[in-house]
């Protein structure tokens, strides 16, 4: 990305898109009963509350009636159908892990099988986005946490702690390419999760080879533990690799979430918050609901002079539903340099 003169002036930036992650599949309802929605009615109301507070993208997970994270696609279909009615202008982004929470005590925290995750392309109604990881990686969510972040919660219990500490994100090349193709065929935008420059470079090659032909919409996931650490050096290095027209959201965890989001607001990028990422106020004196986190970011953005996008504006900024016909068009629209002439000739013949 090029930060030219005036790039930090709000009038030269897109309006802020706020992603809310209010369902927190890693937590049990007892960890934050005041804010963790369990019944289907309450899960729908949580989306409405987030939208009314200023969030325009909803990161969707769903719970069973017993409060555990659901791994059933039928539950996702039920929630999506109700969300389309309750928050019609909100971008519905299904979490590609479905739910990584262990099914029973002592189980590993793990992502579901390749075939099961492919079935996200068959959800009805169709979501706007599905988050897509590329390149298998460690996801030790505790590496950047302070023990106070999870003390007294289910994640502090030895069996749960061990389960999440050893979590792996499976995202090999065959699966990732097939997954992107299936989502695109259904008109679902791939919301790429970039853990570092390596994962971005893999997606760039996918674009250059014609696997993905759409707007580049992505998260920089800075939580450590196999992913980038949330510091300004990693962020600056990552941003230098980004094409000019990427729609980039910054994501971190616990007390890193707010300062990383403040950098995103100042730099014209987008933000994500919610109890899936963070439970606490910055002084750790109280837990902070997803709605309170959204309201905080809205206040800060207004102090910067940057307007918050409406639902319809967020869909335009993220170019929901847009795909391109050729590799050359995809590269140009996203701000990449074109393929080399020999590669272009080969690609044009293939298309």
From TrEMBL:
Listed A to Z, the keywords are:
Metal-binding, Transferase, Zinc
Q: Which co-factors does it depend on? A: Zn(2+)
| Pfam families in alphabetical order | BKACE (PF05853)
State the InterPro entries in the record.
Answer: Aldolase_TIM (IPR013785), BKACE (IPR008567)
Task: Kindly provide the name given to this protein in its UniProt entry.
Answer: 3-keto-5-aminohexanoate cleavage protein
Gene3D superfamilies noted in UniProt: Aldolase class I (3.20.20.70)
